[in-house]
Amino acid sequence: MFHRALLAAFLTLSAAAASAQPLFTDAFPPEEFRARRARLMEQIGDGVALLTGAGEYPAYVRFRQNNHVFYLTGVEVPRAIVAVDGRAKTTTLFLAPRNERTERSEGPVLVPGDEAQKLTGIESVLPRDQFAPALAKLAADARTLYLPFRAETLGGGTGGQAVAAASATSNDPWDGRSSKEAAFVAKVKAATPQAEVRDLDPILDKLRMVKTPAEVAQIREATRIAGLGIMESMRAAAPGVYEYQVAAAADYVFGSLGAQGMAYFPLVAAGRNAHYPHYHALQTKLAKDDLVLFDYAPDYRYYSSDVTRMFPASGTFSEEQRELYTTYLRLYQSLMTSIRPRATPKEIIEEAVKKMDAYLATAVIGNAKVREAAARFVERYRTMPARSLGHFVGMEVHDVGVPRETLEPGMVFTIEPALTIPEDRVYVRIEDVILVTESGYENLSALVPVEVEAIEKLMAEPALTQPAGQGAGATPAATR
Q1: CA nearest neighbour of 261 among 396, 395, 397, 156
Q2: What backbone torsions phi and psi does residue 431 show, to the nearest 5 degrees?
C-alpha cells in the first residue's frame, strides 16, 4: 500500500504545481543552453553551425521542437533558424514574425526582439527574413558551414527511425520528397557555392553522449514517472483485461505527472506476444497463465526513459514462471553488477560471464528447456565479448551514439538482454536505465520491483483506476 499512497501523493502535488505555458522553456535555465552552445563552438572552430527548427504540425497536437534545436536553444516555436558562430562566439536566432491570429487562438509565442533575447540568453534574435542576408555574408567570407544532414528527430522518434522514414519517402516513386534537412542543405549550398558544408550531426551526437547534471535530473524524473506508471499498470493488470487497458493505466500516470507525450509506443505483450520485441498491437486479452511484458516510458521535457518489466497476469507466479523468470533475473543481475566507469563493454561482459557461469554451476533448474536457454544466453555473451551493452537514453529513447567504447561518468544507457525459447515463443526481458557515476553506476529505475516476491506484493495492491469492461470471470485488480 505504501507505493500506491506515494503515487497518489505525487499526482496531487503535480496537479497543484501546474502553471501556464511560458514563452521560453522552464526545463533548463538559459545558462544550460549557453554552455551547450559554447561546447559546440569549441568543436567547430571558425565555422558556423546552421540549424532549422521543426515546422508547424499538420494536426491539433502540441508543438514539439526537434531535438537538435531544443538541445542548443530551448526555443519552442515553429520554423526557427539558429546560427552558432564559432569565430565570434555568438549565436543568432531567426524567428517568424508575430502572428496575431494564431496568438488570439493559442496564446502568445516567442517572437523577434529584446524580450526573446532576454528570455533565451541568445545574443541576437532577429526576424526570419534576415537570415538570407546573413547567409550571403557568410558566403562572402567563405566560412565553413556545419549543418545537420540527418532528418530531424521529433517526439517519440529516434535518429534511426527518422533516417529510415526519410529514405523511404525519398525512394518512393510516387512521392520522392527529400527530408527538410536535405532541402536546407541543398539551399544553403546553392546560396554559398564557395563555402565548405560539413555534417554537424557527429559533433552534436558526441556532445549529447555525456549528459550534464541538469540533463541527468530530467532523465531521472522521466524514469521516475515511467516507473510509477509501470507499477500502476502492474496493479491494474488481471486476467480478462486487455493490453490497451494495461497501457492506459500508465498513460494516466504519465499525463498526471506532466509528461508531454510518449517516448515510444506502449509495448504491452501478453503471453506469446512477447516473442515480438516491439509488439504494440495492444488487442489481446490477458489470460490467467500469461506472463506480461510491459515496456513504456514518457517524453518528459524533451527527455526520455526506457524501462521494461515482466509480471504474471494473475498476480502470482506459477512454479514454472518463477523458475524461468528467476533464472533470467540472476543472469541479468550478473551483467548489471559488472558495470563500472572507464571500462569497455568487452571488459564488463567478460566479468559478467564469470558471474553467470558461477550462478549456473550451482543453480538448480528443473526445466531442461530453461537450462538450455540460460546456457545459450551466457554463450551469446561469451562469444561476442565486444558487443555493445545496450543503447544510450537521453532526448531519444535510443539516443545518439552507441556505448561501445569506455563508459564515462554522465553516460546513461539501458541493458535489456533477452532469454528466449524460440520453439515455444517464450521471451523474457527486463530493462533498466543505468547512469554511469565516478564510483560505479546508479540504477535510475530501481524504484520498480524485479524480485518475484516484490512484484507479487505490488500486484496485490489496489489500482488507482480500475480498467473497464473486464471479461467474465476476471479477477479485479483491487480484490485479487
Answers
A1: 156
A2: -150, 135
Pairing of strands 90-95, 124-127: parallel
Beta-carbon contacts of 88 under 8 Å, excluding residues fewer than 6 positions away, are none
**Alpha carbon 200 to its chain's center:** 22
Q: Give the separation between CA 327 and CA 370, rounded to whole angstroms.
A: 8
At a CB cut-off of 8 Å and minimum separation 6, what does 272 contact? 425, 426
Domains and CATH numbers, the chain: 2-209 (3.40.350.10), 213-479 (3.90.230.10)
Q: Per residue of the chain (480 residues), give pLDDT as tens.
A: 545 665 665 565 555 444 556 899 999 999 999 999 999 999 999 999 999 999 998 888 889 999 999 999 999 999 999 999 999 999 999 999 988 888 888 888 899 999 999 999 999 999 999 999 999 999 999 899 999 999 999 988 888 888 899 999 999 999 999 999 999 999 999 999 999 999 999 999 999 999 999 999 999 999 999 999 999 999 999 999 999 999 999 999 999 999 999 999 999 999 999 988 888 888 899 999 999 999 999 999 999 999 999 999 999 999 999 999 999 999 999 999 999 999 999 999 999 999 999 999 999 999 999 999 999 999 999 998 667 789 999 999 999 987 778 999 999 999 999 999 999 999 999 999 999 999 999 999 999 999 999 999 999 999 987 776 554 344 444 434
pTM surpassing 0.70?
Answer: yes
CB 280 within 8 A of CB 265: yes
| Cell numbers for 361 | 554451476
